[in-house]
Amino acid sequence: MKNIIFIIVAVVLAASAGYVTQQLLFDNNERPVVLQKNNPGVGMQRPEFAMKDIDGTIRNIKQWDGKIILLNFWATWCPPCKKEIPAFIELQDEYGDAGLQVIGIAIDNEADVSAFMLETGINYPIMADEIETTELAKRYGNYMGALPYTVIIDKNGTVSYTFAGEMSKQHALKALQKAGLTL
Based on the structure, what is the number of domains in the chain? Predict the structure, then answer.
């Protein structure tokens, strides 16, 4: 009987800790977004890479030099990843002419990514690979392998912000503004 009570108390405490952690890590609409400090990779020069996009065209990160980049690591099997993509589509539509470039790096297979792109109308370049992209995410500070993982790079190629977890449009706008995007 004591073991059962102990297990129930442990489960309740673990669930409570998980809920509190979620509330602290993820923004919601009732709280102002506070940009985190000391994020992995912040302040470093953006690592260079070249990969095939979903259409087979080789894309080099240097082709977007001079733009503010929102680099998003995601996967089709990741629910929070899929949930944030409509906000990134809107951001590309609204701020592409102002110097923003959203880039998706899918840690996934090309067939699933292509189907998802058609379904959602993604309007920015997507690269997909199941192995190379994981290593690239680490080079950008994602040492834990979290998904989604978003990196904001300023016009000078410096990583100005990283975020592990689902990013809202409000959160992204705050980070992009900090990187120099005029809203």
Answer: 1
Provide the residue range defining the domain that includes 59.
31-178
34 confidence band (pLDDT: 50, 70, 90): very low
Instruction: Kindly report the length of the chain.
Output: 183
pTM of the complete model: 0.80
Closest to 72 measured CA to CA, from 146, 138, 165, 151: 151
What's the CATH number where 45 sits?
3.40.30.10
Question: Three-class SS of residue 24?
Answer: helix
C-alpha dihedral, 53 to 56 to 60 to 63, nearest 10°: -90
Residue 174 lies in a domain: yes
What is the mean predicted confidence (pLDDT) over 154-172?
96
In angstroms, the CA 27 to CA 108 distance is 26
Kindly report the backbone phi and psi dihedral angles of residue 154, in degrees, each rounded to the nearest multiple of 5, phi listed first. -80, 180
Helix (H) or strand (E) holding 100: strand 100-106
Q: What is the DSSP letter of 53?
A: B
Residue 12 lies in a domain: no
26 in any annotated domain: no
- Residue 100 CA to residue 12 CA, distance in Å, equals 44
